[in-house]
Amino acid sequence: MSDTPRRTLLQRIGIAGLATAALGTGTAAGQGSNGASSSTPDQANARTCGRTDLLGHTLPEGEKPRYTFGTTSPDGMWGGVSSFPRSDDSTGNDSTVVATLYDLSDLEQPTVAHELEWPVENHRSNHMRFDGTRDGLYYVTHEMDEGAEEPLGMSVVDFGWGEGTPEEPEVLATLETPNTGSHTNAEHPEDTVVYMIDKAESEPGVIPVDVSEPGDPEQTGPFGPDGFCHALEVDPIREVLHCAYIGGDFVGYVILDISEDPLHPEEIGRFDYDDQPDYTEVGEPGFEDCHQAHFDPNRDIAIVGDELFGELPGGKHVFDIGWGEGSLEDPQPISHFYSPDVREQDVGVWTTHFHDILQDGDETLLVDGGYSQGFWVANITDPCNPVATERFATDCELERADTRHSPGTAPYNWSAVWNDEREFAFSSDTITGAYTFSVDARPARGEDGGGPGSHYDLETILERYS
């Protein structure tokens, strides 16, 4: 493994102290200003850093798919969103779009460059990623749906690398997987490797793909523990994969070493959820349905989110992977937090979903696509005391949206990613399309730090779901 910088104890204490001073006292522990319980020690207030504003929004014309994961190209000039072509036959949704490419040259006016038609019937897509080292390529996942005969895993799409263009893309190759197709994928930001995840209850499911020849990709593996790996992120700083296992023979957080060979990852650390308590009530941390693990690029911590449906929502855990007593070989949870308006899920879905991490000056912020919570921000400068701040209801142009498929109304935000090159966030709402946001470490606004009243109307959202 490559050496990673380690903070001294004095540095860690200093950073935590500064963060605590910046956060202020907030409202009482365990009680938000809206009455919803929270495991966050301090609630956001006017002095908490973490602000967001809408830059732009686009909801494509015509029949709309169910939008899923949104991401950006490394240079921030393109956005991409995967999708389900339809929820089920009862919706009447005739869309055949698997992926939508957005031109982000003007962040205030994202425009649709193309909508990719499905290369195979009876599949859906939960994920897409851009190539980490070359312009003009993206990778969209395929997962078997009802009626599918062969488990296709991923398509390689040329939209400018070769003969394809943003307006006329070319599918260069499709890949099969052993089981059900690829649920999610992830690109290596410094190598021509993409990782597919094939759902497997009792066998490995992480499949590295050599894409040095985009028209002729080659698979290795599968690797990792037996179980359903839901999502992974490639960490080029520590040369590891951060993997979230959501079901099957193993549930929890796994770290795979790729320092020797990115195409042959080896497990070096894990945290087993089976050894931990479940969620029992809103406000009490639990460990269930591990959904996504994402690393902090500047400190030895990772944020691991849980996705629970049913009565109780899942939250996010901060893991020490070298910041304190934890390590890559022995990751240790040190705190837990929820989305800002967390509550029981009898009305809406308040579990957390796909998140990303950014640095602004001395402050470290997290952005999340939080289903009914919309797009929201948290301050994680003090890893032991994360604080949710501003949020934005991603319900723009709801009157034009297709609400015939689950969940039926917006916000239903799927994901949030941060583009460091152009310093903006890109977010995808299942119902209302693609969004761009500014995010920075200025003090949060609003009575409880939740943002201006124009950002979010909780009562309106609750009424929609009731």
Question: Keywords for this structure?
Answer:
TAT_signal, disordered N terminus, globular, 5% helix, four-stranded antiparallel β-sheet, 30 strands, mainly beta, 2 helices, 466 residues, Methylamine Dehydrogenase, Chain H
What does this structure look like?
The chain is mainly beta and 466 residues long. It has a single domain, classed as Methylamine Dehydrogenase, Chain H (7 Propeller), CATH 2.130.10.10. The protein contains two helices and 30 strands. The strands form eight sheets. A four-stranded antiparallel sheet has the order 1-30-29-28, with no helix packed on it. A hairpin with an 8-residue loop joins β18 (252-257) and β19. It is globular. InterPro entries: TAT_signal (IPR006311). This is Regulatory P domain-containing protein.
Entry summary:
The chain has 466 residues and is mostly beta strands. The chain has helices at residues 9-23, 458-465; strands spanning 49-58, 66-72, 78-84, 97-103, 111-117, 123-124, 128-130, 137-141, 143-144, 152-158, 170-176, 182-187, 193-198, 206-210, 218-219, 228-235, 240-247, 252-257, 266-272, 290-295, 301-306, 316-320, 332-337, 355-360, 363-369, 375-379, 387-392, 413-419, 424-429, 433-443.
What order do the helices and strands come in, and which of them pair?
Blueprint: H1 9-23, E1 49-58, E2 66-72, E3 78-84, E4 97-103, E5 111-117, E6 123-124, E7 128-130, E8 137-141, E9 143-144, E10 152-158, E11 170-176, E12 182-187, E13 193-198, E14 206-210, E15 218-219, E16 228-235, E17 240-247, E18 252-257, E19 266-272, E20 290-295, E21 301-306, E22 316-320, E23 332-337, E24 355-360, E25 363-369, E26 375-379, E27 387-392, E28 413-419, E29 424-429, E30 433-443, H2 458-465
Antiparallel strand pairs: 1-30, 2-3, 3-4, 4-5, 6-9, 7-8, 8-10, 10-11, 12-13, 13-14, 14-15, 16-17, 17-18, 18-19, 20-21, 21-22, 22-23, 24-25, 25-26, 26-27, 28-29, 29-30
Protein name: Regulatory P domain-containing protein
Organism: Natronococcus amylolyticus DSM 10524
